[in-house]
Each structure stands twice: as C-alpha cells, then as structure tokens.
Amino acid sequence: xxxxxxxxxxxxxxxxxxxxxxxxxxxxxxxxxxxxxxxxxxxxxxxxxxxxxxxxxxxxxxxxxxxxxxxxxxxxxxxxxxxxxxxxxxxxxxxxxxxxxxxxxxxxxxxxxxxxxxxxxxxxxxxxxxxxxxxxxxxxxxxxxxxxxxxxxxxxxxxxxxxxxxxxxxxxxxxxxxxxxxxxxxxxxxxxxxxxxxxxxxxxxxxxxxxxxxxxxxxxxxxxxxxxxxxxxxxxxxxxxxxxxxxxxxxxxxxxxxxxxxxxxxxxxxxxxxxxxxxxxxxxxxxxxxxxxxxxxxxxxxxxxxxxxxxxxxxxxxxxxxxxxxxxxxxxxxxxxxxxxxxxxxxxxxxxxxxxxxxxxxxxxxxxxxxxxxxxxxxxxxxxxxxxxxxxxxxxxxxxxxxxxxxxxxxxxxxxxxxxxxxxxxxxxxxxxxxxxxxxxxxxxxxxxxxxxxxxx
Amino acid sequence: xxxxxxxxxxxxxxxxxxxxxxxxxxxxxxxxxxxxxxxxxxxxxxxxxxxxxxxxxxxxxxxxxxxxxxxxxxxxxxxxxxxxxxxxxxxxxxxxxxxxxxxxxxxxxxxxxxxxxxxxxxxxxxxxxxxxxxxxxxxxxxxxxxxxxxxxxxxxxxxxxxxxxxxxxxxxxxxxxxxxxxxxxxxxxxxxxxxxxxxxxxxxxxxxxxxxxxxxxxxxxxxxxxxxxxxxxxxxxxxxxxxxxxxxxxxxxxxxxxxxxxxxxxxxxxxxxxxxxxxxxxxxxxxxxxxxxxxxxxxxxxxxxxxxxxxxxxxxxxxxxxxxxxxxxxxxxxxxxxxxxxxxxxxxxxxxxxxxxxxxxxxxxxxxxxxxxxxxxxxxxxxxxxxxxxxxxxxxxxxxxxxxxxxxxxxxxxxxxxxxxxxxxxxxxxxxxxxxxxxxxxxxxxxxxxxxxxxxx
Lengths: 457, 457
Known about the structure:
42% helix, 16 strands, Rossmann fold, eight-stranded mixed β-sheet, homodimer, five-stranded mixed β-sheet
C-alpha cells in the first residue's frame, strides 16, 4: 500500500523546517497587526453553502469545495431531480456546507452575526486556511493560508494610511524589498463615466489591467471594441499612453487633475492626493500610483492597492482595498471598511528564493543528550530538566543499546548543534562532556558552565 | 437575510478574547513540547478517503466528512449504481477526499510517505483541527483542535516517562491540578489470556472500563456473560474487587504480581513497575495505576494513559499510549511509537470554569490615541509609531469628527487601559495627556515618561 499512498492534489505536507518558516511569517504578521491594535478572530472551516455561493462570481462558485451531507444524503432528493442527473443542481441538494473560499465573506458574515457584541471601528486580523478547487500549478494550491487585516466601521482615509504603514513594517521586519501600487476605484469609475461606458465597467478595467502583459497597442485595440465616441477614444488612449510614461506620483496626479472631469472621478483623485501627501509626511516610501491597477473583486469602491516583491518575479504578495458595502450582502448596509490580505505562500517563496529566512530557523533543538549507560538514564532526565528550566530545547536519547557513533549521527542529522555525554567518571566530578557538533570541539564543564556557554552563543 | 444567517451546527466563531485564550493553551503546549525536542509537522485538512476509511471502525467511518468531487461528479458513476441509490456505496463514487478525523492516521501516513527524509526516533507534535460528523452536544464539536505529541521509532520505556514529564510541565504551566491514570494493554491481554477469553478482548475491556459508571455488581454480571470457567471467574472478580479497594501503587503492583500469571501479562506488570519506580525518582507525582483503564483505540499495545482534571467534573483532558504497529496499515511494519493527545477544548473549559486564564488575557491593546483635531492627525501617527517601537500595542482613532466622549467610550468597550490625548498646547510642550481608564487619573507626560509608566506596570 505504501507505494500508492498519496495526498489530495494541490495539498501539502509540511515538515518541521517548513512549519518553522511558515510560523516565522505568521508571527511577524501577527506581531505587526497587534502593534496597530488589530485583534484576531477565527471562523469555522465550513460555512453554509448559502453563505458562500453567489459571492465570488460564477467561476468562483465552481471552485468551492462542497461537503456531502452525512447520513443518507439521497433521502431529501426528489426522484425527478435524481433522474435528471444535473450535477450542479444536485450538488445543492446533497450538500449544505462548503469549505471557506476566502476570509472576506466569512468576516462579513461574522460582523453581521456578531454586530451587537462588536465595538466599531472593528480592527480584526484573521490568519486561517482557505480551500479552492483550482487547477493546481506551481505556486497555486488547493489549500493555503490567507492573512487578512481589516478595519470596518470607519471611512477615514487614515485607515488606508495605516494599512500602508503596516505594509512597511511587515516587509521591513521580513527584510524584503517591495513596491506598493495604489489606485482608486472611483477614478476608474470616473473614467468610465466620462467615456459613457459605465455598463462596460468590468471589461474596461480588465482591459486596463492587462497593459503590462499585452502592451499598449493591444489594449488600444481591445478598448476600441467598447462603444466609446471617437473623440473620447482619442483622449482616453492618449491619457493612458501618457500616464504610463510618467514616473513620479506628482506628475501622475497633475495628469489625473487635467484629464478626470466627473464628480466621482474627482473624488477619487482627491483621495489619492490625500494619501500620497501623507505618505511623504510619514516616510512611507515605495508607493506608486497606477491607474492600470484594477483588482478583480467587485466589492471594492475606493482605494485599491497591491504590493509587489521587487527582488523577484513572484509578483503580488499582498493586496486589498476599500469597500463601502461588504456586509450589505448579509443585511447590514452602509458599513465602510478597508482591508488587505497577505499571501503567506508567496511571501514564503520570496524568502526562500532570496535565502532570507533567519539563519538558524531549521535549528529546532539545542542539545542532544547521548545515552550509553542504562544505569544513568534517570540522571540524563535530571540534567535535561535543568537545561529546560533555562529554556534550552533538549532531546534525551532513549535507547542506551544504540552505539554512541550512531547516536551522534542522529544528532547530526537532526541538525542539533550540541551534544552532552556523561559517564560515571564525569558525574563524580559533577562535570559533563559538551561537544560542539560543527567544530568537533569538546569541553568538560559543569551544568551551569554549559548553560552559559550555549546561551552566550 | 441577516436573521437567517447561521454557521454549520457543531462549529464555532471565536472572538478576539477566545482566540487569545486558545492561543495561550496552544503556546503553552508548543513551548513544553519544543523543550523536550519535539518538532512540528502539518498535514493537509483533506486526505484521500482510502487513507481514512477502515481506520476508525464502522462507527468512525460514518463520522468522516466527505468532500464532493468537483466538476461533474456524476460522470464516473454507472447507471446501475446511480439507480440503486445506496448512499453509502455511492458516496465513495462521488467523493475521493475527506476531512481528517484525527491526527494519528495522517501522522502514520506522513511517516510512511516521508520515511526516507525522517531521522528516527522521530519526535513530532501537531496541533491542528479535526472534523467529525458527530451529534453536536455540550463540549462536543464537529470542528475542534487536537494537540498530539508522539515519539516514533523507539521502544524504550523512557519515552513513556518523557510523556509523563510533559504532562507534569504542561499542567504545572497552566496551573491545573490533575491525576494521570496508567495501565498497560499487555496486562489486560494477560488477564484475558489466563481467563481464556482472548477472542472477547474488546468486550472484556469495555466492561472493565465501565466500573466507575455502573458499579461492581453490574460489571460482575456483564462479565458472567463471557465464557469464563467458574473457578477463574471467582478469582477474576475477586481480583477486580480487591484491586479497586487499593489506593497505593505499591499495593496494586503486589496484587498484580500475585494475580497475573501469563508471559504477556507479566511483561505488562514489569513495564508498569519500571515506570512507577522511575516516577518516584523523577518526582513525577499524581500517577496512579488503574487496571480498569482500557481506552477504546485498538492500536494500543503497551502503556495506556489518561489525564483527568481533579478540580472539575470535566473528565479526561489528555490521553494516549504505546502502539507497536501504527504505520503497519500503510505498509511500514514494526515501528514502535508512543504518543498522546491533549484536548484543547476540554482544557479551555477547565481553565474557564476555574477562572485560571491569565488575568490580562482579554487585554489585547495597550493604548488608545484619541483624535479630535484634524490638523494633528499625522502627529498622532508619529507618536503611535514611537510607542510601537517599544512594543506597545496602539490603536489610533481615525475619525476626528467623533466626539471625544464617544471615543473614550470606545476605548472603554475595547478594554484598553490607557488613552493618550493631545492638543496644540500639549504638543508645544512636547507633553501629552495620559489617562488611566480604570482609575480615571490623568498625567501630563513626555513620550518617554509615558513608555516608562506603562512598561513598569
């Protein structure tokens, strides 16, 4: 059977080193989030399907893992439905629950269900797994972590600034270089309005978003499929072309002030000016306006942002934005919020590629105590106990019948830097042999000297 | 829609205070586990159904949540199977994956799949959720955490002693009183052998396990249903009755030495003597032999143990034992291991009932900075930044148009102990108003004085 053992495609086992590396990322995020007054919540892995469905578009719905009702799941299905064999329709009759697809919809559900216990503005973070029945490929998994941070119940632009500060602190702590791209949905909406293509807003923003990939000429040709008057078309494509040549936020803002002429668009420009000005005051670097940034999710209504790693080709490692009515889908309208999601798996890949994880992260045990005298076994435990009181992580070897050489090999394979050996002789002196596994050096020391030596390194 | 919002039964949302309390338990466990040289692994939430099924008995199989195949799940089902409408059979045709039911089977699967990367003895801990389609009731959930710690690849009894040390350290750290009950499957097996009821081993141990609940007379009557010779029956029930009257491990061991007369049984007694003797040497208190402890899981082959809270009626908060062939089901025979699982939810309930969570665990933010002058907003961010550099958790209020009184109310509701207020006057002196929200006291202090004051409390 061993040969046929597998785990579901798109899922992963994590070995101790990988868990330690992931914890490093999660702990860095949690630490920064909590310094900014965010508090953690957790929601169930499963949600009612009616909570999830219809929130992620038709494609998203297909990617939700459904959980078969337990017991006789066929019972409630009519013969007619059964015989029709419509998989999509039938799945809703035999499944009530699904695995969460992201943390945003469960968060909105949480806020609505617990609105009377929550003090607004509610600043929450949530670091949990999500599941998507996506086609697995390099860097894309069916089970992965999202690390979300949101402020809900305030429409102040200071909240956006706070997110930018958090980005700065997180990536500074992780020692990663990055750039934050910001845009505002109101600007995109304004552009759509002044070109009379509001009904085509989604296709319009999708086309803009592709400029990086397909180039200006192709974007121009795709835009020409939209019903834009030729005079407007000329101005629009000119604006896009020129915008894309500019490098400073100041020049970009001037061009926006010149081109944008509807109220909603002007509001968006005003918001982005506030943010950019305050970034300067607060020493938030690496923020660049880009009107081409669209972000797929339809619930965004104001600022949108995305963070890219600038040292690798891995792309977006964080993204988010302002939404004015997220909880509206669950019956609580007019609650404005802003939030973002850090991509832990992507950040992991960036740190791995750049070799930027802390140097000793794989070292999870400090000391190995060899065992070659059955009469001294409880003594080994006593010594270990003293070392543990000093917060040293100690593995006592349990099988005295294994040869010392093999024991040292085991310590080596486990990457344990120190080995303690003791025999009757040493014990009578209250001293123990400490071996540095890297250099091979050996020292005869008392327990306190051992503790000092290891703690000082 | 808000009124109809629900989450799946048996699942829970966790608010910030509850998350903090859970983290406290997990972090205590992780800390102790790592001091003993255990390292963490993680496995996917989903496993292939063929990995899970047949490992937990017929009842267990029914409690596994199955995940509907994505896409057209009907495609692979024959018309015959479809029309037969056998839910159990059909579920295996339309589902390939299930949510993990415990951490033991995934761990065994992990060890077999990764056997060439693992250095044995492998000491791993794993703290992850499991899912069971059980009938939800008080204290029993459909999604809950297990916290497992196992040593695999050694048959030394020192491993059992190490588990007892970990139990001691964990519950000492959590400030909980407890008792550890130990038994040995070999003793139970020996008793079955000498009464010629080896084929009835499971019913036999189930009957013994019930003594606490149903009393000696009923146990006697149930045992009389087993095919035991009358002479043996007299000795057996006498032994059980007498054993149950004894209070010291010494007396219990003497009775065992007297009664047990088969090789396997004697081996079990020998093992338990080794453990009890070493417990004395290592100051491991609260360990009591109880031959009535059976533990349901069939894979145990040696020591079995269970920890009970002695301050509450909540019962078992940790359990485990020695298994000699766990990985055999996946094709890797003869690997002995020993492990145990801490019940985080039960421990949570015990700490809650006894009011033993750390006093300030609900306090997740240290300082609230009020905001009542739009011109000072970036100044607030700068002050917050300085405080955060000193590891203080700071919430800056973002809406200067909200009345100060309401802001102070919000700080109070969020249980934030300190509020900083600043106006032009204070800033010109480089001093800020610090309010103690508990006592109402106010102080005019420099930033450094504020940091000192808060850190010293």
